[in-house]
Amino acid sequence: MLGESVLPEEFATGIADPQQEISVMLEGMGEPIDVTFRHSTACSAPFLIAVALHKGQAPTQKQLRQISLKFYERGEDRRLLGVIDLRLRQAAPFSGGELLFCAPRCVRNYCLTRLAIGAHYSRLLLKELRSAPAPGMKMSFLERRAAMVSFIRPHPTVLVSIAGEFGGNIFPMNIMGALGPGRFGFALRTDRLAGESVERVGRLVISNVPVRCAPLAYGLARNHTKESVRLEGLPFAIRPSPVFGFPIPEFTVRVREMEVERSQRIGSHKFFVARIVGDRAFSQEPSLSVIHGYYQTWRLGGRTVDMKAALLEDRLNKHGDKLFPIEPEAHPSN
């Protein structure tokens, strides 16, 4: 029933940005509203999704009981791959409209057969019973399933650059999403220094990473716990960003420069809304992105050979040469 898979929660692969594989629709309010580039996860624990609506699009009290996010493939068939029924937790004015913060009410995932998904869920529940969650990251099983569906939509893994009197830092991030033209949302852990630094500086630059440089990006995850790093010690060349002059990787595919407009501590994460002041593409290379393993299985039609290759790609993207340590060359004795 599990096939090849103990599937990664976050499958690292290369996908063009902005992604063109998945449409996300807000339904239950009459005509469906395309929010593919108007939503972002706001927090993991509790799991909340922020959805940006134009003026006049706010749901009525009756509609609030039936709204949902639906994830469709963009192909001719427009197959429905996942549904998150929503429960409104909070609404706030936003860019002339409203920003809705919603929790999951019910979740359905159609990337696998009912039998296969049931087997995977059973394994995950058993794993939960045997191991304690990370501090501050306790999620209900409903919230975990909602997070899985949210990652049907490909999320780029970017490198965030900040700089100030304290120095500079560069670290990876992927809990984020566009909130309409000129606005961007992202979430950072409340128990890490990275979020505090972004809030203090009030500006940031995000750089898309070519998938060939994926291990370099993942290797900087430790920088979330640091206020600043020695930029000359980074494992790649840097250059100044076009607007702020913050240090960015020489290899960046696309760079967006932002000013923080607001932030809100929710639970495990602080959610930020930023205004984009610069957006420049440097190449057409596929960007390092993460998708859920169930969606990757659907993408590849569940073909065993392709899944094995994709699992190897995922490990190489996350760990690079550490997966295959080079044996020291043997020297003949004198």
UniProtKB/TrEMBL annotation:
Name listed for the protein in its UniProt record: Flavin reductase like domain-containing protein
Provenance organism: Acidisarcina polymorpha
